[in-house]
Design goal:
The chain has about 425 residues and is mainly alpha-helical. It has a domain at about 5-260 and about 325 and about 415-430: Serine Threonine Protein Phosphatase 5, Tetratricopeptide repeat, CATH 1.25.40. Helix content is about 50%, strand content about 5%. The chain contains 17 helices and ten strands. A hairpin with a 5-residue loop joins strand 3 and strand 4. The longest helix is centred in the first third of the chain and has 26 residues, at about 50-75.
Length: about 425
Amino acid sequence: MASMDKKARKAVRMAMLALLIVPAACDTLSNPLEVEPASRIPAAQLERPENAQLLSTGAIGDFECAFNSYTTIGGLIGEEFIYAQQTASRTPYDRRNTTKDDADYATNSCTGGGVYTPLQTARQSNENVLALLKSWTDAEVSAGAGSPNRTNLMAIAAAYAGYAYVLLGEGFCTMAISSVNIDKSLTYGGEIQRDSVFKLGIARFSEAIAFATAVNNTDIRTMAYLGRARAKLNLGDYAGAKADAGQVPSGYVKVATASATADNRANRVFAENSLTGLQFSVGEPYRSMGDARVPIVKADRPPSATGIPHYYQTKYPTVSTPLPIATYEEAQLIIAEADIRANSLASALLIINASRNRGGQGAFVGVTQADYLAELIDQRRRELFAESHHLGDILRYNINVQPASGTPYHFGGTYSNQICLPLPAAERLNNPLIGS
Protein backbone atom coordinates (compact mmCIF):
# COMPACT_ATOMS: atom_id res chain seq x y z
CA MET A 1 0.00 0.00 0.00
CA ALA A 2 1.25 3.42 -0.85
CA SER A 3 2.38 5.43 2.17
CA MET A 4 0.44 8.47 3.27
CA ASP A 5 0.80 11.31 5.74
CA LYS A 6 -0.23 10.33 9.28
CA LYS A 7 -2.66 13.22 9.62
CA ALA A 8 -4.30 12.33 6.33
CA ARG A 9 -4.63 8.70 7.36
CA LYS A 10 -6.19 9.72 10.66
CA ALA A 11 -8.62 12.04 8.91
CA VAL A 12 -9.75 9.25 6.61
CA ARG A 13 -10.22 6.80 9.46
CA MET A 14 -12.22 9.28 11.52
CA ALA A 15 -14.45 10.10 8.58
CA MET A 16 -15.08 6.44 7.89
CA LEU A 17 -15.87 5.74 11.53
CA ALA A 18 -18.30 8.63 11.55
CA LEU A 19 -20.24 6.85 8.81
CA LEU A 20 -20.24 3.41 10.30
CA ILE A 21 -22.74 1.74 12.56
CA VAL A 22 -20.03 0.46 14.88
CA PRO A 23 -21.20 -1.28 18.03
CA ALA A 24 -18.12 0.10 19.79
CA ALA A 25 -19.66 3.55 19.68
CA CYS A 26 -23.10 2.39 20.76
CA ASP A 27 -24.50 3.47 24.08
CA THR A 28 -27.09 0.78 24.67
CA LEU A 29 -29.72 3.43 25.40
CA SER A 30 -29.22 5.70 22.41
CA ASN A 31 -28.48 5.78 18.71
CA PRO A 32 -24.78 6.51 18.16
CA LEU A 33 -25.57 8.48 15.03
CA GLU A 34 -27.62 11.07 16.86
CA VAL A 35 -24.54 13.02 17.93
CA GLU A 36 -21.60 13.97 15.72
CA PRO A 37 -18.45 14.21 17.89
CA ALA A 38 -16.63 17.51 17.48
CA SER A 39 -13.35 15.69 16.89
CA ARG A 40 -14.62 14.03 13.73
CA ILE A 41 -14.22 15.56 10.31
CA PRO A 42 -17.58 15.73 8.49
CA ALA A 43 -17.58 13.06 5.81
CA ALA A 44 -18.77 15.51 3.18
CA GLN A 45 -15.44 17.31 3.38
CA LEU A 46 -13.58 14.17 2.35
CA GLU A 47 -16.09 12.25 0.27
CA ARG A 48 -15.29 14.01 -2.95
CA PRO A 49 -13.98 12.48 -6.16
CA GLU A 50 -10.71 14.42 -5.93
CA ASN A 51 -10.02 12.50 -2.70
CA ALA A 52 -10.68 9.06 -4.17
CA GLN A 53 -7.10 7.86 -3.83
CA LEU A 54 -6.92 9.11 -0.25
CA LEU A 55 -10.16 7.37 0.65
CA SER A 56 -8.97 4.14 -0.96
CA THR A 57 -5.68 4.21 0.91
CA GLY A 58 -7.46 4.82 4.20
CA ALA A 59 -9.86 1.92 3.60
CA ILE A 60 -6.94 -0.42 2.85
CA GLY A 61 -5.35 0.76 6.10
CA ASP A 62 -8.54 -0.12 7.99
CA PHE A 63 -8.41 -3.63 6.55
CA GLU A 64 -4.72 -4.14 7.25
CA CYS A 65 -5.10 -3.21 10.91
CA ALA A 66 -8.18 -5.42 11.26
CA PHE A 67 -6.39 -8.28 9.50
CA ASN A 68 -3.47 -8.02 11.92
CA SER A 69 -5.81 -8.14 14.90
CA TYR A 70 -7.86 -11.05 13.53
CA THR A 71 -4.75 -13.05 12.67
CA THR A 72 -3.40 -12.62 16.20
CA ILE A 73 -6.64 -13.15 18.12
CA GLY A 74 -7.71 -15.97 15.82
CA GLY A 75 -4.41 -17.66 16.59
CA LEU A 76 -5.06 -17.25 20.32
CA ILE A 77 -8.47 -18.89 20.08
CA GLY A 78 -7.19 -21.47 17.64
CA GLU A 79 -4.25 -22.94 19.61
CA GLU A 80 -1.46 -21.24 17.66
CA PHE A 81 -0.83 -19.08 20.73
CA ILE A 82 -1.43 -19.12 24.50
CA TYR A 83 -2.16 -16.01 26.54
CA ALA A 84 0.62 -15.73 29.11
CA GLN A 85 -0.22 -12.63 31.13
CA GLN A 86 -2.85 -11.54 33.66
CA THR A 87 -5.39 -9.26 31.95
CA ALA A 88 -8.62 -11.06 32.75
CA SER A 89 -10.60 -9.53 29.87
CA ARG A 90 -8.28 -11.20 27.34
CA THR A 91 -8.53 -14.71 28.76
CA PRO A 92 -11.91 -15.66 27.18
CA TYR A 93 -10.22 -15.90 23.77
CA ASP A 94 -7.58 -18.26 25.07
CA ARG A 95 -9.85 -20.24 27.38
CA ARG A 96 -12.39 -20.54 24.57
CA ASN A 97 -15.33 -19.30 26.59
CA THR A 98 -16.10 -15.96 24.91
CA THR A 99 -19.69 -14.83 25.44
CA LYS A 100 -21.70 -12.17 23.65
CA ASP A 101 -21.26 -9.88 26.64
CA ASP A 102 -17.45 -9.82 26.56
CA ALA A 103 -16.28 -6.41 25.46
CA ASP A 104 -12.74 -6.92 24.18
CA TYR A 105 -13.56 -8.87 21.02
CA ALA A 106 -16.65 -6.81 20.29
CA THR A 107 -15.77 -3.18 20.83
CA ASN A 108 -12.00 -2.86 21.16
CA SER A 109 -9.97 -1.35 18.36
CA CYS A 110 -7.64 -3.29 16.11
CA THR A 111 -4.74 -2.23 18.34
CA GLY A 112 -6.55 -3.30 21.50
CA GLY A 113 -7.37 -6.90 20.67
CA GLY A 114 -10.74 -6.20 19.06
CA VAL A 115 -12.08 -8.26 16.18
CA TYR A 116 -15.72 -7.43 15.47
CA THR A 117 -15.53 -3.65 15.24
CA PRO A 118 -12.25 -3.58 13.27
CA LEU A 119 -13.51 -6.08 10.68
CA GLN A 120 -16.86 -4.35 10.34
CA THR A 121 -15.05 -1.04 9.96
CA ALA A 122 -12.81 -2.50 7.27
CA ARG A 123 -15.81 -3.92 5.42
CA GLN A 124 -17.85 -0.74 5.64
CA SER A 125 -15.02 1.63 4.75
CA ASN A 126 -14.14 -0.33 1.61
CA GLU A 127 -17.79 -0.72 0.62
CA ASN A 128 -18.35 2.98 1.22
CA VAL A 129 -15.44 3.81 -1.08
CA LEU A 130 -16.83 1.38 -3.66
CA ALA A 131 -20.27 2.99 -3.52
CA LEU A 132 -18.83 6.47 -3.84
CA LEU A 133 -16.69 5.46 -6.80
CA LYS A 134 -19.74 4.00 -8.52
CA SER A 135 -21.50 7.33 -8.07
CA TRP A 136 -18.65 9.35 -9.60
CA THR A 137 -17.38 9.52 -13.17
CA ASP A 138 -14.00 8.51 -14.54
CA ALA A 139 -13.21 12.14 -15.31
CA GLU A 140 -14.06 13.30 -11.78
CA VAL A 141 -11.82 10.72 -10.16
CA SER A 142 -8.90 11.06 -12.58
CA ALA A 143 -8.86 14.82 -11.94
CA GLY A 144 -7.80 14.14 -8.35
CA ALA A 145 -4.29 13.89 -6.91
CA GLY A 146 -2.30 11.18 -8.63
CA SER A 147 -4.81 10.88 -11.48
CA PRO A 148 -6.20 7.56 -10.23
CA ASN A 149 -8.22 5.21 -12.39
CA ARG A 150 -11.77 4.85 -11.04
CA THR A 151 -12.23 1.25 -12.16
CA ASN A 152 -8.92 0.26 -10.62
CA LEU A 153 -9.93 1.77 -7.28
CA MET A 154 -13.26 -0.08 -7.47
CA ALA A 155 -11.38 -3.34 -7.98
CA ILE A 156 -9.26 -2.65 -4.91
CA ALA A 157 -12.20 -1.70 -2.69
CA ALA A 158 -14.24 -4.74 -3.73
CA ALA A 159 -11.32 -7.12 -3.12
CA TYR A 160 -10.59 -5.83 0.37
CA ALA A 161 -14.28 -5.80 1.27
CA GLY A 162 -14.45 -9.41 0.10
CA TYR A 163 -11.66 -10.41 2.45
CA ALA A 164 -13.38 -8.66 5.35
CA TYR A 165 -16.44 -10.81 4.65
CA VAL A 166 -14.33 -13.98 4.58
CA LEU A 167 -12.81 -13.24 7.98
CA LEU A 168 -16.18 -12.33 9.49
CA GLY A 169 -17.56 -15.60 8.17
CA GLU A 170 -14.67 -17.73 9.35
CA GLY A 171 -14.41 -16.31 12.85
CA PHE A 172 -18.00 -15.71 13.95
CA CYS A 173 -20.88 -18.07 14.68
CA THR A 174 -23.42 -15.76 13.05
CA MET A 175 -23.19 -12.27 11.59
CA ALA A 176 -25.09 -9.06 10.91
CA ILE A 177 -24.22 -6.87 7.95
CA SER A 178 -25.46 -3.30 8.39
CA SER A 179 -24.40 -0.30 6.35
CA VAL A 180 -24.51 3.45 6.15
CA ASN A 181 -25.40 4.36 2.58
CA ILE A 182 -23.75 7.22 0.75
CA ASP A 183 -26.83 9.36 1.39
CA LYS A 184 -26.26 8.60 5.10
CA SER A 185 -29.42 6.52 5.43
CA LEU A 186 -29.08 3.34 7.46
CA THR A 187 -29.63 -0.18 6.20
CA TYR A 188 -29.74 -2.65 9.08
CA GLY A 189 -28.99 -6.29 8.45
CA GLY A 190 -30.58 -9.18 10.30
CA GLU A 191 -28.71 -12.09 11.81
CA ILE A 192 -27.37 -14.43 9.12
CA GLN A 193 -25.43 -17.67 9.08
CA ARG A 194 -21.80 -18.07 8.11
CA ASP A 195 -22.53 -19.48 4.67
CA SER A 196 -24.47 -16.33 3.80
CA VAL A 197 -21.47 -14.21 4.78
CA PHE A 198 -19.21 -16.19 2.45
CA LYS A 199 -21.70 -15.70 -0.38
CA LEU A 200 -21.57 -11.94 0.16
CA GLY A 201 -17.80 -12.16 -0.01
CA ILE A 202 -17.98 -14.12 -3.25
CA ALA A 203 -20.14 -11.38 -4.77
CA ARG A 204 -17.57 -8.73 -3.85
CA PHE A 205 -14.70 -10.83 -5.19
CA SER A 206 -16.55 -11.35 -8.46
CA GLU A 207 -16.92 -7.59 -8.78
CA ALA A 208 -13.23 -7.15 -8.03
CA ILE A 209 -12.25 -9.69 -10.69
CA ALA A 210 -14.36 -7.95 -13.32
CA PHE A 211 -13.03 -4.49 -12.46
CA ALA A 212 -9.42 -5.67 -12.21
CA THR A 213 -9.67 -7.51 -15.52
CA ALA A 214 -10.97 -4.38 -17.20
CA VAL A 215 -7.87 -2.40 -16.14
CA ASN A 216 -5.42 -5.33 -16.26
CA ASN A 217 -4.58 -5.15 -12.56
CA THR A 218 -3.24 -8.67 -12.26
CA ASP A 219 -2.29 -8.27 -8.60
CA ILE A 220 -5.80 -7.42 -7.42
CA ARG A 221 -7.40 -9.87 -9.84
CA THR A 222 -5.25 -12.67 -8.43
CA MET A 223 -5.98 -11.56 -4.87
CA ALA A 224 -9.70 -11.67 -5.61
CA TYR A 225 -9.52 -15.07 -7.30
CA LEU A 226 -7.80 -16.53 -4.25
CA GLY A 227 -10.18 -14.81 -1.86
CA ARG A 228 -13.10 -16.23 -3.81
CA ALA A 229 -11.48 -19.67 -3.75
CA ARG A 230 -11.16 -19.40 0.04
CA ALA A 231 -14.82 -18.44 0.37
CA LYS A 232 -15.93 -21.26 -1.93
CA LEU A 233 -13.82 -23.73 0.05
CA ASN A 234 -15.72 -22.68 3.17
CA LEU A 235 -18.97 -23.39 1.33
CA GLY A 236 -17.82 -26.85 0.20
CA ASP A 237 -17.71 -25.81 -3.46
CA TYR A 238 -14.48 -27.68 -4.07
CA ALA A 239 -14.60 -27.62 -7.87
CA GLY A 240 -15.26 -23.87 -7.87
CA ALA A 241 -12.52 -23.28 -5.32
CA LYS A 242 -10.06 -25.29 -7.40
CA ALA A 243 -10.92 -23.35 -10.56
CA ASP A 244 -10.32 -20.02 -8.84
CA ALA A 245 -7.16 -21.16 -7.05
CA GLY A 246 -5.82 -22.33 -10.39
CA GLN A 247 -5.68 -18.67 -11.46
CA VAL A 248 -2.92 -17.95 -8.92
CA PRO A 249 0.57 -18.01 -10.46
CA SER A 250 3.64 -19.47 -8.80
CA GLY A 251 5.32 -17.05 -6.41
CA TYR A 252 2.25 -14.87 -5.87
CA VAL A 253 1.92 -13.20 -2.49
CA LYS A 254 -0.33 -10.37 -1.32
CA VAL A 255 0.53 -8.86 2.04
CA ALA A 256 -0.84 -6.56 4.68
CA THR A 257 1.91 -3.99 5.05
CA ALA A 258 3.34 -3.12 8.45
CA SER A 259 5.45 -0.38 9.96
CA ALA A 260 6.90 0.78 13.26
CA THR A 261 5.56 4.30 12.70
CA ALA A 262 2.25 3.81 14.54
CA ASP A 263 0.44 1.16 16.59
CA ASN A 264 -2.21 0.63 13.93
CA ARG A 265 0.54 -0.14 11.40
CA ALA A 266 2.39 -2.65 13.59
CA ASN A 267 2.68 -6.36 12.92
CA ARG A 268 0.52 -7.48 15.83
CA VAL A 269 1.79 -11.06 15.85
CA PHE A 270 5.27 -9.70 16.51
CA ALA A 271 3.94 -7.23 19.07
CA GLU A 272 2.23 -10.00 21.03
CA ASN A 273 4.69 -12.85 20.48
CA SER A 274 8.39 -12.25 19.90
CA LEU A 275 11.57 -12.06 21.93
CA THR A 276 10.21 -8.86 23.46
CA GLY A 277 6.49 -9.44 22.90
CA LEU A 278 5.56 -11.40 26.00
CA GLN A 279 1.76 -11.28 25.95
CA PHE A 280 1.47 -14.55 24.04
CA SER A 281 3.49 -17.75 23.96
CA VAL A 282 3.36 -20.18 21.05
CA GLY A 283 0.78 -22.92 21.56
CA GLU A 284 1.96 -26.35 22.57
CA PRO A 285 1.09 -28.14 19.28
CA TYR A 286 3.51 -25.83 17.42
CA ARG A 287 6.49 -25.76 19.77
CA SER A 288 8.32 -28.83 18.52
CA MET A 289 7.23 -29.28 14.93
CA GLY A 290 10.76 -28.85 13.62
CA ASP A 291 9.29 -27.32 10.47
CA ALA A 292 11.02 -24.49 8.62
CA ARG A 293 7.63 -22.86 8.08
CA VAL A 294 6.94 -22.75 11.83
CA PRO A 295 10.16 -21.23 13.22
CA ILE A 296 9.93 -21.26 17.02
CA VAL A 297 12.46 -20.31 19.72
CA LYS A 298 12.27 -21.05 23.45
CA ALA A 299 13.29 -17.92 25.33
CA ASP A 300 15.92 -18.13 28.03
CA ARG A 301 13.78 -16.50 30.69
CA PRO A 302 11.53 -17.57 33.59
CA PRO A 303 7.91 -18.48 32.89
CA SER A 304 5.26 -15.78 33.08
CA ALA A 305 3.38 -15.00 36.29
CA THR A 306 0.74 -17.51 35.18
CA GLY A 307 3.37 -20.22 34.65
CA ILE A 308 3.64 -20.13 30.86
CA PRO A 309 7.14 -20.61 29.37
CA HIS A 310 7.94 -18.15 26.62
CA TYR A 311 8.13 -19.68 23.16
CA TYR A 312 8.13 -17.17 20.36
CA GLN A 313 7.80 -17.23 16.59
CA THR A 314 10.40 -15.77 14.24
CA LYS A 315 8.29 -15.97 11.09
CA TYR A 316 7.70 -12.25 11.60
CA PRO A 317 11.07 -11.02 12.91
CA THR A 318 10.19 -7.32 13.24
CA VAL A 319 7.22 -5.08 13.93
CA SER A 320 7.50 -3.95 10.30
CA THR A 321 7.32 -7.42 8.74
CA PRO A 322 4.23 -7.70 6.50
CA LEU A 323 1.65 -10.46 7.00
CA PRO A 324 0.54 -12.58 4.03
CA ILE A 325 -3.09 -12.21 3.05
CA ALA A 326 -3.04 -14.49 0.01
CA THR A 327 -0.27 -16.74 -1.31
CA TYR A 328 0.44 -19.25 -4.04
CA GLU A 329 1.06 -21.89 -1.35
CA GLU A 330 -2.47 -21.40 -0.01
CA ALA A 331 -3.85 -21.70 -3.54
CA GLN A 332 -2.01 -24.98 -4.06
CA LEU A 333 -3.39 -26.44 -0.85
CA ILE A 334 -6.91 -25.48 -1.95
CA ILE A 335 -6.32 -27.33 -5.23
CA ALA A 336 -4.97 -30.32 -3.33
CA GLU A 337 -8.03 -30.44 -1.10
CA ALA A 338 -10.36 -30.29 -4.08
CA ASP A 339 -8.45 -33.19 -5.64
CA ILE A 340 -8.63 -35.18 -2.40
CA ARG A 341 -12.37 -34.59 -2.12
CA ALA A 342 -12.69 -35.85 -5.71
CA ASN A 343 -10.46 -38.85 -4.80
CA SER A 344 -7.82 -37.70 -7.30
CA LEU A 345 -5.07 -38.63 -4.87
CA ALA A 346 -2.23 -38.81 -7.38
CA SER A 347 -2.75 -35.16 -8.31
CA ALA A 348 -2.95 -34.12 -4.67
CA LEU A 349 0.23 -36.03 -3.84
CA LEU A 350 2.36 -33.74 -5.97
CA ILE A 351 1.18 -30.68 -4.06
CA ILE A 352 1.41 -32.34 -0.66
CA ASN A 353 4.97 -33.48 -1.26
CA ALA A 354 5.96 -30.02 -2.50
CA SER A 355 4.50 -28.57 0.69
CA ARG A 356 6.27 -31.12 2.87
CA ASN A 357 9.52 -30.38 1.09
CA ARG A 358 9.24 -26.70 2.01
CA GLY A 359 9.02 -27.71 5.63
CA GLY A 360 11.90 -30.16 5.52
CA GLN A 361 9.68 -33.22 5.79
CA GLY A 362 10.07 -36.44 3.85
CA ALA A 363 7.71 -37.78 1.20
CA PHE A 364 4.13 -38.53 2.20
CA VAL A 365 3.32 -42.22 2.55
CA GLY A 366 -0.45 -42.18 3.10
CA VAL A 367 -2.78 -44.44 1.13
CA THR A 368 -6.45 -43.70 1.74
CA GLN A 369 -8.51 -40.60 1.08
CA ALA A 370 -8.77 -40.13 4.85
CA ASP A 371 -4.96 -40.28 5.12
CA TYR A 372 -4.66 -37.60 2.49
CA LEU A 373 -7.23 -35.31 4.08
CA ALA A 374 -5.53 -35.58 7.48
CA GLU A 375 -2.22 -34.73 5.85
CA LEU A 376 -3.76 -31.80 4.00
CA ILE A 377 -5.09 -30.40 7.28
CA ASP A 378 -1.66 -30.77 8.87
CA GLN A 379 0.04 -29.06 5.93
CA ARG A 380 -2.38 -26.14 6.20
CA ARG A 381 -1.52 -25.88 9.89
CA ARG A 382 2.16 -25.63 9.03
CA GLU A 383 2.16 -23.72 5.75
CA LEU A 384 -0.35 -21.11 6.91
CA PHE A 385 0.89 -20.70 10.49
CA ALA A 386 -0.09 -17.30 11.89
CA GLU A 387 -1.65 -16.19 8.59
CA SER A 388 -5.32 -15.96 9.69
CA HIS A 389 -6.45 -19.44 8.61
CA HIS A 390 -6.35 -21.84 11.54
CA LEU A 391 -9.41 -20.61 13.45
CA GLY A 392 -11.54 -21.12 10.35
CA ASP A 393 -9.88 -24.47 9.74
CA ILE A 394 -10.77 -25.66 13.25
CA LEU A 395 -14.41 -24.95 12.56
CA ARG A 396 -14.45 -26.29 9.00
CA TYR A 397 -12.57 -29.52 9.70
CA ASN A 398 -13.88 -29.97 13.26
CA ILE A 399 -10.31 -30.17 14.60
CA ASN A 400 -9.88 -31.28 18.20
CA VAL A 401 -8.04 -28.31 19.69
CA GLN A 402 -5.34 -28.48 22.33
CA PRO A 403 -5.47 -28.16 25.28
CA ALA A 404 -8.73 -30.08 25.20
CA SER A 405 -12.01 -28.85 26.64
CA GLY A 406 -12.16 -29.57 30.37
CA THR A 407 -8.39 -29.27 30.84
CA PRO A 408 -7.44 -26.96 33.74
CA TYR A 409 -6.73 -23.44 32.53
CA HIS A 410 -3.61 -21.72 33.84
CA PHE A 411 -5.47 -18.54 34.82
CA GLY A 412 -8.31 -20.37 36.58
CA GLY A 413 -11.20 -22.56 35.56
CA THR A 414 -11.00 -24.95 32.62
CA TYR A 415 -10.76 -24.74 28.86
CA SER A 416 -14.14 -24.65 27.14
CA ASN A 417 -15.27 -25.28 23.56
CA GLN A 418 -16.55 -21.90 22.28
CA ILE A 419 -14.50 -21.71 19.09
CA CYS A 420 -16.50 -19.36 16.89
CA LEU A 421 -17.10 -15.88 18.28
CA PRO A 422 -20.73 -15.07 19.10
CA LEU A 423 -22.50 -12.10 17.62
CA PRO A 424 -21.79 -9.42 20.25
CA ALA A 425 -24.41 -8.07 22.63
CA ALA A 426 -23.48 -4.58 21.41
CA GLU A 427 -24.82 -5.53 17.98
CA ARG A 428 -27.90 -7.26 19.34
CA LEU A 429 -28.85 -4.33 21.57
CA ASN A 430 -28.50 -1.70 18.85
CA ASN A 431 -29.83 -3.53 15.80
CA PRO A 432 -33.65 -3.42 15.60
CA LEU A 433 -33.70 -6.53 13.38
CA ILE A 434 -31.98 -8.71 15.96
CA GLY A 435 -33.28 -9.81 19.34
CA SER A 436 -31.12 -9.88 22.46
